[in-house]
Amino acid sequence: MVRHIKKLIMMFGLIFTVQTSSAQLGFSHEIGAFVGAVAFQSDFGIRSNFETNSGNSGIALGIVHYINFAYRADCNCYTTDTYFNDHFKIRSEISWNKTPLNHFGEWVDDSRTSADADKLRAHSGEAQNWDIGMQLEYFPRSIRAFSAGAYSFAPFAAFGAHFVSFNPSVETTYGDGNPLNNNNFYSAWNTVSNGDPYVSAESGSTWSVVSSIGTRYKLTVLSDLFVELRWQYYFDDFIDGLNHKLPSNKANDWNLWLNFGYIYYLD
Questions:
Q1: How many domains are contained in the chain?
Q2: How far is CA 223 from the centre of its chain?
Q3: How far apart, in Å, do the first and last CA atoms of the chain sit?
Q4: DSSP code of residue 184
Q5: Do residues 54 and 99 touch, judged by C-beta distance below 8 A?
Q6: pLDDT, one tens digit for every residue, the chain (267 residues)
Q7: DSSP symbol at 182
């Protein structure tokens, strides 16, 4: 886990260097923070099942920084009026999320009394991730006009990439309770695994893509509130500590975030 944290620190240093360089070019900056809820879509539970989606949900926290191309902090003046300057911002972020995971749906219904049903009910886990990355945010309406108070809401869409350090946990109360004993887990996973591991509590790192839609609300001249719905797709399927090979496992782990935040403009 320590080496993955070191990677995050190196990534943060690189992003900070980019942001510092941008300051010398005369752009302005914004800082903020958010809190949110995460619905984790993993190999736990049943695909497209409401109980699974609502049950496997967690929390998220983050701090954000924006490069604002529409305004120059060095002269307290607007930049050259171009479409890019007036409609795009670059967002950098470091965030954390944690989600407890359990099995839901028909295979763990109380009416099922098989050993495999008991194994699923006894199996739980936790996904815990640190993210650092950047997004390009697009504002259909003028950033200048919004900053000047011409309207209260500024919708946006964003796309970017995050480096992720993940640290899952795996628990079971079945049998001897040993998470390294395959006999304590759903037998079908072992049948189709071909000897590959399918339960793992090892930490690791990977990349992910993120896409968001949301809106800002002008609170004061130098501050905004924002809300966003974010989709994140990981390039690894062990984010949740489970990677079974059943036909239902058609994609890597992914999640949905609903974030609420505050942004302050650095004058």
A1: 1
A2: 24
A3: 38
A4: G
A5: no
A6: 555 555 555 555 555 555 554 444 557 899 999 999 999 999 998 777 778 778 899 999 999 999 988 776 555 556 667 899 899 999 999 999 999 999 998 889 999 999 999 999 999 999 999 999 999 999 999 999 998 889 999 999 999 999 999 999 999 999 999 998 999 999 999 999 888 899 999 999 999 999 999 999 999 999 999 999 999 999 999 999 999 988 888 889 999 999 999 999 986
A7: G
> 232: domain CATH number?
2.40.160.20
CA–CA distance, 113 with 109 (Å, rounded to integer) = 9
Of residues 28, 97, 12, the one with CA closest to residue 58:
97
- Cα(204)–Cα(102) distance, integer angstroms: 21
In the block, tokens 């120059």 appear at 72
Contact (Cβ atoms closer than 8 angstroms) between residue 196 and residue 30: no
Domain that holds residue 129: 2-266
* Tokens (6 digits) for 187: 């037998």
Give the integer Cα–Cα distance in Å for 144 and 131: 30
Q: What's the pTM value of the predicted model, to 2 decimals?
A: 0.87
Selection from 219, 213, 228 nearest residue 258 by Cα:
228
